[in-house]
Design a protein that fits this description.
It is found in: Mitochondrion inner membrane. By secondary structure, the protein is mainly alpha-helical. The protein contains 12 helices and no strands. The model has no long low-confidence stretch (mean pLDDT about 80).
């Protein structure tokens, strides 16, 4: 009788410990998700604001038949500043923030979750993922974020290439598009976006995580210095954006067709039109050199900010 009571008491204590352990684990998981969302949102906002004038200039060239050169790009920046004022260089950045904050928050948070899921599946943990799952985690994170925030990307592109008189604010863009072009226009260009984000996000996260892993292996230090993170992020941005750039040009053309005089078309017809009118290299890689300047800066800031915020929040929580 005594033994039965004792065994029951032990089982009850074990069950209680299991429940409490599960509750603590669940609370920790929620904290990690919130931490990733907050860090990702800040990372995206800082990175995009830093390169907004260069980003706007790149979009203007992407959606026009004007030939791109560094001289022409900086001339456009200069005349925009002279004619419209300094803050006009950040026109469309409010729409960028509305898009990029949820996009970056979702992308970084989803990446951490996919890393955990794939880590459990393959028997690895976090940064120790082998190459293919590492690439897959990045591609899935980018696809998830792009799918959930795409209309905001279209609105931002429209605001970047139109004068202030056409669209007064973000809500005005949504209203005019829905009235004049139909709600389906809000997802025009979605297919090339997803096709482009798979190599872009996949290679960006893969490159950054791989460089951190190599650094850990050869330096003997568990964490790189902030400037090393910036360099790793810059390399990640350079590789990811170069791989997906032609689809980025097609996406911008499709997004802005309603206000630039181009015909709405499919991915293939837009590709053919660009190649026929401007040539394969000059058309599909127009503004790439501008991306080589702004992309590494933006991605470097983004990855570094995310990592440092994660470290800070972990210290505050502990």
């Amino acid at each position: 009788m005594g033994n039965g009571v004792q065994e029951g008491s032990v089982r009850l204590r074990e069950d209680t410990e299991t429940v409490l352990s599960g509750a603590v684990s669940s609370k920790r998981d929620h904290r990690q998700v919130l931490s990733s969302l907050l860090s990702g949102a800040l990372a995206g906002a800082l990175a995009k604001t830093a390169v907004a004038p260069l980003d706007r200039t790149k979009i203007i060239f992407q959606v026009s038949s004007k030939r791109f050169s560094a001289k022409e790009a900086f001339r456009l920046l200069y005349f925009t500043y002279l004619n419209e004022g300094f803050l006009s260089l950040w026109r469309g950045n409010s729409a960028t923030m509305v898009r990029v904050i949820p996009y970056a928050a979702i992308q970084f948070s989803a990446h951490e979750e996919y890393k955990r899921i794939l880590g459990r599946y393959y028997g690895f943990r976090g940064e120790a993922l082998p190459p293919w799952p590492r690439l897959l985690a990045g591609a899935l994170a980018g696809t998830t974020a792009a799918s959930l925030t795409y209309p905001l990307d279209l609105v931002r592109a429209r605001m970047a290439v139109t004068p202030k008189e056409m669209y007064s604010n973000i809500f005005h863009v949504f209203i005019r598009i829905s009235r004049e072009e139909g709600l389906k226009t809000l997802y025009f260009g979605f297919a090339p976006t997803v096709l482009g984000v798979i190599p872009y996000a996949g290679l960006s996260f893969f490159t950054y995580e791989s460089l951190k892993s190599l650094h850990r292996e050869y330096s003997g230090r568990p964490q790189p210095y902030p400037f090393e993170r910036m360099v790793f992020g810059a390399c990640a941005g350079l590789i990811g954006q170069s791989a997906s750039y032609p689809l980025d040009v097609v996406r911008r053309r499709m997004q802005t067709a309603g206000v630039t005089g181009h015909q709405h078309g499919s991915i293939l017809s837009t590709l053919r039109s660009i190649v026929r009118e401007e040539g394969a290299v000059r058309g599909l890689y127009k503004g790439l050199s501008m991306n080589w300047l702004k992309g590494p800066i933006a991605v470097g800031i983004s990855f570094t900010t995310f990592d440092l915020m994660q470290i800070l929040l972990r210290r505050l929580q502990s």
